[in-house]
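Aim 2 progress update. The chain analyzed this quarter is reproduced below.
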Amino acid sequence: MRKIIETEIGSDFSKQLYSMLVGEWNDMEAFESTKFGLSIPNPMVVVEHNQVIGGAAFTRYQKPDSNDVVIWLNALYIRPESRGQGIATDLIYALHGIAKGLHALTDVADLYIKTGWNIVKEDENGTIVKQL
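Predicted structure tokens:
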């Protein structure tokens, strides 16, 4: 049975997720509950047979072309052996309501667009998308 749940920073599930994210992106920031004095949502994990197979983490950062600070999807990851099953799509849908105007920088914009996100801008770093 697979489930998507919010997990507390420091929990076993969040530690499993963080380990996966650091394995993929060695510059991954530690999970934080606040940044710039503002609250950040807890990580979300995809759990199957009591093991984390993927998840999402968040941060606060400047909105594109603005001085406003908003919540960003800092990382979204699914283990390679679990990909191709629609898990990332389910996870992106589960993020609905996490934060108003959630942003993400991605190389797979189509994945987000099919779940209702809009392209904000494209540049050499990737595509910035925003959840409505």
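DSSP finds three helices and nine strands in the chain. Residues 37 and 60 are 10 Å apart (CA to CA). These observations will guide the mutagenesis experiments scheduled for the next reporting period.
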